[in-house]
Design a protein that fits this description.
Length: 236
Amino acid sequence: MQKISILLIEDEKSISDFIVRTLELNGYSVMAEKTGRDGLARITSAMPDLVLLDLGLPDMDGIDVIRETRKWSAMPIIVISARTLEKEKVEALDAGADDYVTKPFGTSELLARIRTSLRHVDKIASEAGGLRKTYSARGLLIDFEKRLVTLNDEPVHLTRMEYNIVSILAKNSGKVITYDSLINALWGPYAGDNNRILRVNMANIRRKIEKNPGEPEYIFTELGVGYRMTEDEGDR
Ligand code: CA
């Protein structure tokens, strides 16, 4: 299974080192940035599964990092800060942060907040597509509970984003899923125009599962509308 990726934006080295070490020990893949500008660049280039954000950054207010990100993404953002003022917590949440931890915080508290925020994202994705436990068609098998994809019994290694896309399409197999509804399910109502990122991910998915990506057997493009995944044979 692919690791969940977390981007940490924190300028204080001792805190950053501690969090990176803690998260890595707990099985997460971690990227770290020290400024708001670098953090925002990393958010768009790496599309982490979750962002941990310090509010007091050297070059800009963390609140503005949240506002910028929320223009196009609903990825979970947990704010970490030494500030204890209610006003700032509310401001961060109003700007679109999912949760808040105040320094100093314990390891177990931080890990619990992360798990909760990630669960919330999974819940939205699964509610979008009913309750099927598996998908199978033409040798392609998806186990939604284990988040495992195999092709002719060989494991297919998808990134978390690629898996989420395939999983939404597979749970709605046979139906056309519009670009907009897919983007909305993946990145939330703040997503805006993420067509390009979706296309790049789809190209990677096809490279991994299709014999000939130019003539797909599993995921078809409905030009100008969306994607349709070949119907689940498990239901027949
Ligand atoms: Ca700081």
